[in-house]
Amino acid sequence: LKVKTIILLPLNIMFRAQFLVLCLLPASSFVTSFQVIPSPKTLKFASPKKSVLFSKKDEDDSPDLQRTFPVGSFVEFEEKSRVHIGTIEESEHKSNGAARYKVTGAEGKSFSISHKDVHFALNAPNSPNAAAKLFDEFQAAQLMSEEQIQKKLDISPELLEMAWEESNENEDESINLTPSRLIELVHAHAASAIEKYMAWRLLQTESAHIFFKDIKDHGRIVSFKAKARKAVDAAKQAFCMNHEDSELCFV
Question: Of 50, 69, 195, 249, which shows the fewest CB atoms inside 10 Å?
């Protein structure tokens, strides 16, 4: 065996002995175990798992309930393309939030209808006698012709044209005409319940459509927008080709 000679500097004896021991130890004795800590960029965090008992859908499980007409209201409604007058007896909401009604017609027959089937609704008076009177008027008005409604309301086609001019005074900011507003414009008083219904029907007639177009909310006609002057001139010309005796067609 060859023994390596270690040259020592002039040190004290104890230090020399310690130095000699260190030189004879294997290199692995100086290695200390440690864990390598990754940099923040290499760290990966597991995304939290969502519970199977909760999801985004659960937050919106409750549908928005459709606003309903009060029980006891008088309504014009459609059933199998036929128009009826009746009284709402019950209302309910389906699982999707849509409203449905049980309605008793004027003839005593019961109907189950959806909210969109209701064309027009009137609040019934609290007094039984007043309610019965309004229902009879409601039923009679539903059967009236265009000419009868004009006479009952005392609103001629010429007055409809004046109402259009008032509503269309500024074509860039034309306002929607409601049945109540029509009565106020023509007769300068607040409309009664039955006047509102008759004015609503009048504004859907052929002569009224010369000047106004229907505005719908969820499929129900709620107001009427004044047409532009050019559109009115064209509509009046077409109307007068088949209604030469109308007041609107007199020069």
Answer: 50
Rounded to whole angstroms, the Cα distance separating 145 from 106 reads 19
Question: Span 168-182, mean pLDDT?
Answer: 81
What is the overall mean pLDDT for the chain?
Answer: 83
Task: Summarize pLDDT for 130-172 with one digit per residue, the tens.
Answer: 999 999 999 999 999 999 999 999 999 999 999 999 988 766 6
The pTM score is: 0.73
**Rounded CA Rg of the chain:** 43
